[in-house]
Amino acid sequence: MTTQRPDQSKAPSWLPFAPWLFVCLWSAGYGVAKLCLEYTTPLNLLAMRFVLTASILALPLVFYKVSFPSWRALGPLCLVSLCIHVVHFGLVYGGLSFGASAGVLALFAASQPLLVEISVSLFYRRFPRVVTMTGLGLGMAGAAYVIIMRHEFSAGALLGALMGFLAVVSFSIGTACDRYRTKNESPLAGYFVQYLFAAI
Fold first, then answer.
1. How many Cβ atoms from other residues are within 10 Å of residue 28's Cβ?
2. Alpha-carbon span 48 to 28, nearest angstrom
3. What pLDDT is recorded for position 27?
4. Among 3, 121, 140, 157, which is 20 to 30 Å from 12 by CA?
């Protein structure tokens, strides 16, 4: 006689709201960072971000007794962390502190999926699709249009915009590296290592 087990795959009740919560948090990121940088420096904001996130991830890591990644996996994880967290957010916060508007950096961030596809194509030694290159060109043209219409021609604003673009390039390279590498570790352990490395 088989006993009926409760359905463990049932989705939690809050799951339908998760995408909307993510969009709200993500869209507010640049504006909140711009506001925070009026009271602190980019390096302090980076340190607080990485230390706080690593501390939060450490709790479920210990509670669920998640196994730590192997020594061989640490190198690629640290490389991904360097591109996605350290360089990306460092350039974003630096660009905002130099005077770039959050809207311009958000436009650069919108081109991120295209840059990721281009980076993956280069990893596999393929030429990116024409439609991808066209979309990237339109995105850059949109960012340039916003800069021109807002008359953001000061040296600090232009340098900040350039840093914002390089931040998205770094994020795209890190994402491509993350897709390219072999993943044997738990996602929770992988994220913990990335944020711990970034905090150090």
1. 12
2. 18
3. 63
4. 3
